[in-house]
Amino acid sequence: MTETVEKLQEDALIKGVKQLLLSTKGYLQDANSVEDMEETLVHLEERDGDFHRYDLVKGLRAQVEESLGPLIDSELHRHALDQYDQIAGNEHILQQITDKLIHSQQRKEMSGNLKQNVQWAVQYLLDNFDEEFRHSIEESQAIQKHNLFSSDGESSFGSSFNQSSFVFPNQEHFQHIAENLEKSNFPENRIEGLISLVKASSADILCSDYWPQFKKGLMHALEDDDIKISSLSMTFCAKAFASCSPSTKEVFFLLVDYLIGQFQPPKSYIPKVKNGLDINKADTVKLLKVFRLLNEFQKQIPQYWIRFPERFVEELIESMLKLIEITYKAPMGSQPQMMPLHFLAVLDPQAKWFMTWMHGHYSRSILLKNFESCKVVVIAVIKHCMEFCGSRKVPFDLMSEASDTPGSTGTGEGRRKHYTGPEIEYIYFIHSIHFISKLLCFKHGRDLFPITVKEKEEPVSITKFLVSLTQLLTDPTVQSLHPHSQGVFELCYLVTEFLVRLCQCDDVSEICMCHDDVTSALLSPIAHWLDGSSDQGGNMASETTRVYIGEILSVVASNSRGRRHLLYGEREERFTRTKSAPAHTITEFVCKGLVKNLPRESGPPPSCYVIEAYMYVCRQLYSTCEGLYVLYPYNLHTVISNVWKATRRQLENAKTPTPSSDNSDDNEHAESRELIFWEETLKDNLLNFATTPKGLLLLQQTGAIDDCVSYMCSRYAKRLQVSKREKFGYGYMISQVAGTTPGIVALDSSGFFNNLIRELWSTLECDSEDNFVYTPRIWPIDPIDKSAHKYFMSLVHTLSSFPSVYELLRGGKLPAKDSYGFRELPETVVDLLDRLIVVNTEAKIHSLFNYEQSHIFGLRVLSAMVSSLDVFLLLQTQYDIHNVLLTGQEANCPEDRQGEIIVDMLSLERNYILVKSYLIGGPSERIIPPRELTQIQMKKKFKYPLFSCYPVPREYSPNIAGRSAMKQENELSKFLSETTKKNRHVKSTSWLDKCSKVFLNLMSSKPETVKGSLLTELLEKSLPVLNNSQEEAIFPQMEYTGTDAQLKSYKLSSIKDLGVRMAVRYGMHLKVLTSSAEAAENLSQIMKQTGYFLKQQQKHVDSPLRTMQGEYVGFDWFAATIFLMMNGHVERTWKFLYRFSCLASSGYLWVPRLYCSMHLPPGLMESGISPLLSSTGHNVELVLQAELPLVYSAFRMSGFAPSQICYHWLQQCFWNYLDWLDICHYVCVCILRGVDYQVYTCVALLKYLQRDILQHQQDGDLAVFLKEESIKGFRLGAHLDFIYQLQQKFRKTILPEMLNITQP
Questions:
Q1: Which residues pair with 419 in a beta bridge?
Q2: Per-residue pLDDT averaged across 373-394, rounded?
Q3: Phi, psi of 835 (to 5 degrees)
Q4: Residue 903 CA to chain centroid, in angstroms?
Q5: Least confident piece of the model among 126-130, 280-284, 759-763, 965-969
Q6: Which 8-state DSSP code applies to residue 418?
Q7: DSSP summary character for residue 1176
Q8: Could you give the CA distance from residue 202 to residue 463 in angstroms, rounded to a whole number?
Q9: Between 20 and 30 A from 1115 (CA), which of 350, 623, 1258, 1271?
Q10: What is the mean pLDDT of residues 22-33?
């Protein structure tokens, strides 16, 4: 022997090769050819985790180390001495060493020796095969024999595919096996042939030329009465199914052909349905085993068949359909026999095989295409379901047993031995409804309907089928299990799951469930309850059944199409209150059930669990604007509120639960727990009125807003969802609540802001966990770090409304401290303002660990807040924000270059806020500097000047052309001049219609020509016509009683005084005013006159809200707009406002008009919620959800309500968002065409911004974008067509509601 053999001794080498062969037999069996075997062995290291533990591999590694180790060490030592190689890099060194080793003489000698020795060991094993492998083969045969005959649970009837040892057969061996499998041979020879077949590689068997003989022999073996022979045949099939070869379809065809042969014609041992299934019979056991083997393959093959050609799937499906389409038409007077579908149902009651085959398009398309030409299967399934629903014979006495075992049927100890006929029918029904539920989810599956089940009978449509199932659910004679002990095979639960599955997809729900017949059948139990009548001999549906129906309806109401069906019925005549619609029946039942006003003839009142199920459906409806419109007449908020208050009083008087063993105490504890559940349920449903602006007003009027908001904040702190059908949390609802003064007060008192600020401070200034910091925190790249972005958006959402900010900040003084402790955390919004925004002392700077990051966060919050002009006026008058920012800019100047300001992140942000809050104008009327430096700007000189004192540099104020002295003639001016020449008092509505038509046509074609004095003339001549209209003039014309002396003594607030100066500055910039001093005096007089005039119509309200004490606290932006449109003329402005005050549009365009007004109902007047929000904002969301669902969804996902941004725009009359001409057009259109055009204008704006809204929703800064960015490129005249379309659809719904604002 050579030197290598001295290291790898003969015994060790033979043992190593033998171990490697035995360990890799599983990989070799899966190979289809010799080439595949070679490929497997080459990549054995990648596949076998134990590769490096084999003795042969260890020996080879040792030999490589001994032979090549010295050469490797010498090469490494030589390169280590070369300083240049160390600098060049390791990759170059390794490449050189590797090349040298590969071409070295030592490696060639070692490779030759190893190859020679391994070949010798393999040849030795081949020469002594029987002696070397006998023990391994005998051991494998013993294991196989034990697996085949020791336990039925471990046979091929089980779910595992058994494996056995392997050999390398040749063609002569295959021929010998085929001869042994012939039916004419002795059983011993057949068994020997089957055992050899099981040992061999299934891939070799299926691909060999002898497969037809093998298949024939296996078929005879399956048909043989000898259990050992048939079991061996099934063992081979199980082993073949374990591989992922395309040839496994041959085994599948073998089993299908065998089963078809048993059913066509049916063998005598095939049981009849009536007699049930007896598993003690050997023939039945064998048949079940074959079906089980087939079913296991059915459920597993979809994981692999994507690898195979499409024809492979087609052949499998066609073969399977040939089997399951076998049906029997029993002669008259005889009982039908069980079909293949019965056996599949016993083994797989939930039809999981069909679910997996229908899951992917690859197989689903083929399966549905075959169903079109082979409807027998679908007909059989539908027929059985319809017959079952018609007879309604459910084996209740055997229900629990049947539900325990069908999916795991076997013949082992402790398993069922017999299933009765009713059980078989019920299991087949279970299988069928799962089958149909998957079929109905796809269009081509639904296209199979209607189906003719019996001749001379009406075809079964989808609706008819669902009605039959629903009647099975609602039938009072069909008992139900308790909802807390229900099983997956309980009848009502099965039908409920079937219907719920259909409702989960919008399209499927609309096509299948949204039909009056289906919903009428579902609602029949509560309809009979409301009527005081009953069917089925006086029996009523059980509590569990009614809860199930409520669950189904809640899933229907979880999507937009289902909600529309519940609100309007099958016709879907939107925005109508049709009493026949399902929503009215549900709401009436809930209202009467809450007050226990149901007819006594209907039986005992429903439990709180039943009412809760249907109340949740109502909640899904009234949490939308459209649903609240339909359900509003029922005053559901009042009913729920009254019951909740009574329950809370009852709970307060209830005995406190304490541990006790007394049964009476246990009953009391159960009642107390039920009361707690009921109180929280009522409060939760009451809270969901706050999802819409009008619903929030209704919630406030119930007096329960504080408790509901506190409950919401507790759930929000726990990161809980709104409900089981809601995909998002409470962010959207919080933004709705925070937009009103009573809502913000409730949020503040509940500790919401305290928790928010504490978490924010922990993120900005502290570590999220109280651990030692070993590495510095990553310096944020963005101005607002990702960890703080959520809290930033929460502050922007909750501080977006001026009344809310005023309620939080008015009178709140900044603390004057000489020092701040590091553990001294801010707790209120005023504290946060002091620590992060008004950072004007060294003590505040040194109190921040991350000064720049925290201060820029505060400035970004300030920038979003001052987007509201009223909020800016409040902050400026109360905290002198401008001076703080200018001082910060001045402090950022270098000592050696006075007047120059260092350009950094903080100075850019301060400059942005200073320009933005000082200048007023639309997108083309002012230039806002950037707040970040781009790469291009960093390379060039920053062209936007920074400043530390006012006025703002001229670079930010573009030149605007003044009003032309020459009067331009157009269609509108001609129309108005003709009216003047005729000297006719315009009082006809027809004249107004003609005038508005000319105006709108000119706006669409030449908007730039409709401006200036032409618009004022249009308003002044149109106003008398509107005043004479009873529909428009809904407010009485009050007499103005103010005198000069009273006006002189009338003092404007600091907010209004600053607002006057800002408005005059804007008018001077637009060149509509000539003298700033005179204009300021005139506008102040207008503010005093309108303030005094509106005060005459106000009522005193005893309210703790700061915004409700005294006069309107904000600035009158509408009056300022009219003043500028009138070119600063006092008399014309006052005369217009005085006459305008009696119009309905004044209540919405002129925000202070209805502040604490005597014309409003007491509930609305005392609520502290502006009609601009509760009516206009509500209607904007109503139209938005119907016309622009993507935009509405973007708002919902962002947690920001569209009503909030619309209220923000409208409150300041679009100042800073639209150019002056478009603002004037907006005012004129709303006055001339009706106040509902205010709603349509907002929707048109959101439609124009749709792409940006969707993009910023993904970026997570939607509210910041809408508040801070002007609306560039929007022209109202260009969107009049869309606005007119909205008017055609929604005017009948929106305008009457807005005009009836004075009605209680």
A1: 277
A2: 85
A3: -85, -30
A4: 43
A5: 965-969
A6: E
A7: I
A8: 49
A9: 1271
A10: 68
- Return d(Cα 287, Cα 279) in angstroms, integer: 10
Res 844 pLDDT > 70: yes
Rounded-to-integer distance, Cα 1287 and Cα 1268, Å: 29
Instruction: Name the DSSP class of 776.
Output: P
Mean pLDDT across 271-299: 90
CB burial readout 896-933, b (16+ within 10 A) else e:
eeeeebebebbbbbbbbbbbbbbbbbbbebbbbbebee
Single-letter amino acid code for the residue at 1044: D
Which structure tokens are listed for 818?
Answer: 């000489």
* 1167 contacts: CB under 8 Å, gap ≥ 6: 697, 700, 701, 742, 1174
Alpha-carbon span 733 to 13, nearest angstrom: 76
- The closest of 902, 905, 884 to 893, measured between CA atoms, is 902
Tokens (6 digits) for 682: 């009522």
Check if the beta carbon of residue 557 is closer than 8 Å to that of residue 621: yes
Length reported for the chain: 1304
Q: Amino acid identity, residue 335?
A: Q
Of 125, 7, 101, the closest CA to residue 63 belongs to: 7
Contact 927, 956 (CB under 8 A): yes
CA atoms within 13 A of residue 1269's CA, in its CB half-sphere = 14
Buried/exposed code over 1139-1173 (b: 16+ C-beta within 10 A; e: otherwise): bbbbbbbbbbbbbbbbbbbebbeeebbbbbbbbbb
Chain mean position to CA 30: 45
Kindly state the average pLDDT of the residues 78-100.
59
Cβ atoms of 419 and 277 within 8 Å: the answer is yes
Residue whose pair of structure tokens reads 């933004």 in the numeric block? 735
- Among 197-206, 497-506, 1151-1160, the least confident range: 197-206
The Cα 734–Cα 716 span in angstroms is: 9
User: For a pLDDT cut of 90, what percent of the chain falls above it?
Assistant: 53
State the pTM of this model.
0.81
Please choose, from the candidates 982, 983, 959, 968, the residue with its C-alpha nearest in 3D space to the C-alpha of residue 1013: 968
Q: Identify the CA nearest to 1170 among candidates 1212, 1117, 1207.
A: 1207
Nearest alpha carbon to residue 891 among 829, 845, 856, 860:
845
Residue among 1060, 1099, 1072, 1063 at smallest CA distance from 1012? 1072
* Mean pLDDT, range 1103-1120, rounded to an integer: 93
Q: Are 442 and 359 in contact (CB under 8 A)?
A: no
- The DSSP result for 224-285, as a single string, is -S-HHHHHHHHHHHHHHHTS--TTHHHHHHHHHHHHHHHHTTBPTTSPBTTT-EETTSHHHH
Q: Kindly report the average pLDDT of the chain as a whole number.
A: 84
- Residue pointed to by tokens 């303002």: 833
What's the average model confidence in pLDDT over 382-401? 69
Do residues 676 and 651 lie in contact, with contact meaning Cβ atoms separated by under 8 Å?
Answer: yes
Residue 418 has pLDDT above 90, yes or no: no
What one-letter code names the amino acid at 25? K
CA angle 265, 269, 270 (to 5 degrees): 60
CA gap 207, 246 in Å, rounded: 10
What 3-state class would DSSP assign to 1262? helix
Question: Residue 653 — very low, low, confident or very high, per pLDDT cuts 50/70/90?
Answer: confident
DSSP 535: B
Residue 1098, φ and ψ in degrees, nearest 5:
-95, 150
- Percent of the chain scored above 70 by pLDDT? 85
| Position 927, amino acid | I
